[in-house]
């Protein structure tokens, strides 16, 4: 007899009418309760079969239990309709663990029908399996204490950065969400490595103005290095940050999306409400992107909730912020140490970038300290160099002028302005000579060599003679080192020193042309 769905309350009402203070006939009971007379008799027979022919019930719980067993008899491993019901836990286990092997619900149903030829049809098999999963996966509403959990993760697709004149690059979006208020923070990082992970958390705590009790990350390698189900081993850098700021690290379990439902929703909001409105903008730098994100965050966090009072910001200010721990006096920097030898070019290689050290340390061992933002070089426990880490590797060499050898400095200081400045300390004749030379030479290094050679004449001749020789060479329209050196060597600049030499006149009784100063024409 099929008894599934028989209402227990109707049975109790029939018993009350039949065995109450006044005995009522089956006809009247059926009429008052709106059921048929055979149904009334069936209920009474069922109650009589378990010894219940009275009202009120004497042992309410016990007698109701006996009625329930009589109403819903079930045999182990069978449904109330007589079909053998599969072990849904085994079905789910086969479906999830062997999904990559091509196992489908249809295959599992076929195997079930081989065992039970008169069993459930495929559609009913699927419906009952779906019902089992709904009963099994009933979500728990987990109340979050104020200031307790901060859920963190990286969001969806990367974001394009287009610096002018260079190739575009892609950055990642870090998202953090407070469990209590859903207060959201987002920050773009150049990559998802440990240094960027630490920097993003530091920015998040600064944005919140305090430190939560616990941080709940995904099982990323920047958070944990051993993905043990019960006791995962934390990344040493992230663990050190937790100790510095005073928060606990509670990694979400693998394949348990509800462990981090807040951040999953936050990631979705980051895509829909932060990045989607910015999809038509082009960002020339990551700093410009982060500034735009900060503006959008203010809008998102101030938007009123749809199903609860207030907004993310108002709930955060009222409940979360007072419960946050204080920020430490100094921010945390992820650091690592390396020992290396200074190469002959006095540039120490660090992660594909070459940082200069004083040239006097070539061939010696130094200690390099790396943080998210700086590279420091130590020699015998004394810091000898400090560099800011570049945002990319487009220019792999980072050199400080003070670290160069003197000959390198002189060579690199060669410029038109530099030579004119040095010429001004000699006299106006040399300045005029150099200016004319720079106008004549289309390739500046050619002029640099001539200027350098003329300045070097100061080692042999006094500056007043060199200045006069430059004026004579300029009037001869012979802008070369050889002409100036020839004038000085043969004393032409001393001829009639009483006669002033013009910077502009090209004809003079003492001007004999460049050929007059050639060795074969000099007596």
Strand line-up in the sheet with most strands: 3-2-1-4-7
Task: Kindly report how far apart the N and C termini lie.
Answer: 142 Å
Tally of helical runs? 18
Mean pLDDT, to the nearest integer, reads 81
Q: Provide the low-confidence segments as ranges.
A: 1-6, 75-81, 498-511, 513-523
Q: Supply Rg.
A: 45 Å
Q: Can you say what the CATH homologous superfamily of the largest domain is? A: Ribonuclease H-like superfamily/Ribonuclease H
How does the helix and strand content classify structurally? Answer: alpha+beta
| Count of discrete domains | 5
Helicity level = 40-55%
Keywords for this entry:
523 residues, 5 domains, 5-stranded mixed beta sheet, Integrase catalytic subunit, Nucleotidyltransferase, domain 5, nucleic acid binding, RNaseH-like_sf, Integrase_cat-core, alpha+beta, 4-stranded antiparallel beta sheet, 18 helices
Structural notes for this entry:
Residues 384-395 have a biased composition (Basic and acidic residues). This is Integrase catalytic subunit. Belongs to the transposase IS21/IS408/IS1162 family. One of its GO terms (molecular function) is nucleic acid binding. Residues 308-327, 384-411 are annotated as: Disordered. The termini are far apart. A hairpin with a 7-residue loop joins strand 1 (149-161) and strand 2. Helix 2 crosses helix 3 (37-49), helix 14 (416-424) packs parallel to helix 16 (444-456) and helix 15 (428-440) packs across helix 17 (463-475). The strands form 4 sheets. A 5-stranded mixed β-sheet has the order 3-2-1-4-7, with helices on both faces. It is rod-shaped. It has helices at residues 8-19, 26-33, 37-49, 60-71, 88-97, 105-115, 122-136, 194-208, 236-245, 261-275, 286-302, 312-323, 406-412, 416-424, 428-440, 444-456, 463-475, 481-489; strands at residues 149-161, 169-178, 184-189, 214-217, 224-226, 233-234, 248-249, 336-341, 347-350, 353-356, 365-370, 374-379, 382-388, 397-398. The longest helix has 17 residues, at 286-302. It has 523 residues and is an alpha+beta fold. The chain has 5 domains: 8-71; 88-136, no CATH class; 149-323, Ribonuclease H-like superfamily/Ribonuclease H (Nucleotidyltransferase, domain 5, 2-Layer Sandwich), CATH 3.30.420.10; 336-404, no CATH class; 414-521, no CATH class.
């Amino acid at each position: 007899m099929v008894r599934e769905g028989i209402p227990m309350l109707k049975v109790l009402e029939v018993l009350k009418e039949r065995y109450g203070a006044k005995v009522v006939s089956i006809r009247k009971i059926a009429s008052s309760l709106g059921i048929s007379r055979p149904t009334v008799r069936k209920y009474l027979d069922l109650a009589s079969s378990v010894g219940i022919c009275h009202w009120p019930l004497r042992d309410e719980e016990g007698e109701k239990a006996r009625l329930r067993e009589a109403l819903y008899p079930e045999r182990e491993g069978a449904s109330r309709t007589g079909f053998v019901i599969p072990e849904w836990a085994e079905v789910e286990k086969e479906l999830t663990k062997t999904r990559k092997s091509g196992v489908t619900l249809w295959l599992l149903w076929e195997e079930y029908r081989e065992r039970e030829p008169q069993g459930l049809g495929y559609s009913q098999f699927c419906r009952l399996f779906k019902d089992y999963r709904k009963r099994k996966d009933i979500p728990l509403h987990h109340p979050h204490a104020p200031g307790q959990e901060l859920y963190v993760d990286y969001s969806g697709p990367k974001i394009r950065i287009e610096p002018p004149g260079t190739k575009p690059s892609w950055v990642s979006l870090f998202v953090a969400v407070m469990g209590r208020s859903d207060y959201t923070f987002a920050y773009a990082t150049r990559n998802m490595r440990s240094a960027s992970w630490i920097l993003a958390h530091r920015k998040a705590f600064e944005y919140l103005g305090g430190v939560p009790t616990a941080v709940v990350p995904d099982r990323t390698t920047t958070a944990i290095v051993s993905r043990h189900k019960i006791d995962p081993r934390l990344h040493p850098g992230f663990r050190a940050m937790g100790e510095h700021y005073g928060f606990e690290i509670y990694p979400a379990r693998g394949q348990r999306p509800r462990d981090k439902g807040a951040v999953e929703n936050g990631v979705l909001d980051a895509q829909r409400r932060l990045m989607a409105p910015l999809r038509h903008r082009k960002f020339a730098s990551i700093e410009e992107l982060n500034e735009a994100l900060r503006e959008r965050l203010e809008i998102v966090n101030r938007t009123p909730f749809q199903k609860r009072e207030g907004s993310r910001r108002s709930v955060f200010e009222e409940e979360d912020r007072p419960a946050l721990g204080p920020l430490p006096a100094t921010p945390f920097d992820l650091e690592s140490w390396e020992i290396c030898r200074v190469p002959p070019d006095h540039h120490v290689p660090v992660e594909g970038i070459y940082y200069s050290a004083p040239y006097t340390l070539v061939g010696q061992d130094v200690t390099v300290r790396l943080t998210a933002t700086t590279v420091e070089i130590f020699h015998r426990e004394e810091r000898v160099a400090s560099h800011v880490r570049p945002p990319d590797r487009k220019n792999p060499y980072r050199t400080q002028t003070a670290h160069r050898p003197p000959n390198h400095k002189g060579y690199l200081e060669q410029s038109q302005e530099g030579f004119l400045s040095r010429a001004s300390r000699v006299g106006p004749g040399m300045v005029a000579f150099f200016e004319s030379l720079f106008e004549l030479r289309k390739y500046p290094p050619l002029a640099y060599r001539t200027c350098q050679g003329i300045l070097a004449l100061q080692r042999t001749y006094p500056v007043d003679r060199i200045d006069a020789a430059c004026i004579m060479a300029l009037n001869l329209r012979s802008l070369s080192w050889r002409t100036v050196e020839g004038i000085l060597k043969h004393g032409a600049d001393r001829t009639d020193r009483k006669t002033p030499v013009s910077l502009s006149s090209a004809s003079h009784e003492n001007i004999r042309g460049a050929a007059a100063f050639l060795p074969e024409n000099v007596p």
